[in-house]
Specification:
Elements (H helix, E strand, L loop, with lengths): L1 E5 L5 E5 L11 E10 L1 H7 L15 E9 L11 E4 L2 E2 L36 E2 L16 E4 L7 E2 L7 H4 L5 H12 L6 E5 L3 H12 L4 E6 L2 H11 L2 E4 L6 H7 L6 E6 L9 H8 L8 H9 E9 L12 H7 L2 E4 L4 H13 L11 E4 L3 H10 L7 E4 L1
Parallel strand pairs: 10-11, 10-13, 11-12, 13-14, 14-15, 16-17
Antiparallel strand pairs: 1-2, 3-4, 3-8, 3-17, 4-5, 5-9, 6-7
């Protein structure tokens, strides 16, 4: 089959690879009908994420048609159309029993990225995302093996819902939703969203659906900010033009700050000169610039929600400011399985329209060009969908 494979920094290729096979009784084989390039894929593409090996198949946002099922698979059969969550979860362990599916302690033979790990078990395995998270083949391919199929895949019985409308149930829509839920905002609230990429846009869509009154969105790509303003009615701040968005936000909220901030950027945020040097010397794993801005922009007693990926040490974390302001921080990989059914209902009822952010739909064979367009933000790129 054809698949998009990793060959090093800025080097991905469409290769011929062996077809996947069932390996466990609760596996399914999926014929992929749509997949997408995620911001997290760009971390890997840029060579910023450890644990990748040459030939690894990328991609963790995908859906398709069930081609084959293991003997222990219940509820799915050949021909079913399903969306697959990017987290691989068993459904039976300590954490899955608490609906903390991304913390599943049975599906990741890797160690994760925790620095001070001790003997704690690793969190869930992830599709197409480094051997630190299990080395599972991803879905930017014609076919993919899906483990733990009794827990992950969500059947889409409504044929009137296009792939484009439901594909993002696999990652960015639940991620944006969890970010807003973690932010504890609702009707009448104020919210700052740092990052107008796909997750930030999904967070804005969810916040509007839940009645958030005022949303500030911060980014440095003017076309993304303009899209967010027109689509979700946000107040935009371009940090290429305003180096201190938090000050603007505080001034606009009666010198208090917003009820909550969402960091939808993560560890590749453009940091200070010191952070750049430390990262180059491998003495720091992440830039803390967006977190510092979020801390400053959030009112006392507020919440900082972090769906953006972080790893390792952060310079200038300003924990004293968090304490002095009494802030809460909620973060972590998304518990996708927990939110997929209710989000499918919102999409089905027309309350959410995740497909509006798609700017490019390309054949899988053009995936290399898709990565280049998305990485360099060419042609007003917001989100790339690939069709095998």
């Amino acid at each position: 089959m054809k698949a998009l494979t990793y060959h090093g920094s800025d080097d991905v290729r469409i290769d011929n690879v062996p077809d996947p096979k069932l390996m466990a009784e609760d596996d399914i084989l999926l014929r992929v009908t749509a997949t997408a390039i995620c911001g997290s894929d760009l971390h890997i593409y840029r060579g910023k994420f450890p644990g990748m090996e040459t030939g690894d198949i990328l991609g963790h946002e995908f859906m398709g048609i069930v081609e084959e099922t293991g003997s222990a698979v219940a509820g799915l059969q050949r021909g079913d159309r399903v969306v697959v969550p990017f987290t691989i979860s068993c459904g039976a362990c300590f954490y899955c029993g608490r609906k903390l599916f991304s913390a599943c302690e049975t599906t990741n033979p890797g160690r994760g990225t925790i620095v001070n790990k001790k003997d704690a078990r690793s969190g869930a395995g992830l599709f197409g995302f480094s051997h630190l998270y299990g080395g599972y083949a991803g879905g930017q391919a014609e076919y993919v093996r899906v483990p733990k199929a009794n827990v992950g895949p969500l059947r889409i019985p409504d044929s009137s819902l296009s792939d484009a409308k439901v594909l993002f149930l696999s990652d960015i829509l639940p991620t944006g939703y969890q970010a807003v839920v973690n932010a504890e905002v609702g009707a009448g609230s104020t919210l700052a969203i740092f990052g107008a990429g796909p997750v930030g846009l999904m967070a804005a869509a969810v916040a509007r659906m839940l009645g958030v009154e005022r949303i500030f969105m911060i980014d440095h790509h003017a076309y993304r900010l303009e899209f967010a303003r027109q689509t979700y009615g946000v107040e935009t701040i371009d940090f290429d033009e305003d180096e201190d968005p938090a000050e603007r936000i505080v001034e606009a909220t009666d010198r208090r700050g917003v009820d909550a901030s969402i960091d939808a950027v993560g560890f590749e945020a453009k940091g200070s000169t010191t952070e750049t040097i430390l990262a180059t010397l491998k003495l720091e794993g992440s830039s803390g610039k967006v977190l510092r801005q979020a801390i400053a922009a959030t009112r006392r007693g507020g919440v900082i929600s972090v769906p953006g990926v972080y790893a390792g040490f952060i310079h200038g974390f300003l924990f004293g400011d968090i304490f002095e302001k009494g802030l809460s921080i909620k973060t972590g990989q998304t518990h996708v399985q927990r939110y997929m059914p209710e989000l499918l209902e919102h999409v089905s009822q027309g309350r959410l329209h995740p497909d509006v952010i798609i700017s490019h739909t390309l054949p899988l064979m053009d995936a290399v060009r898709g990565y280049e367009i998305f990485d360099k933000k060419q042609d007003a790129c917001r989100k790339v969908v690939l069709v095998p």
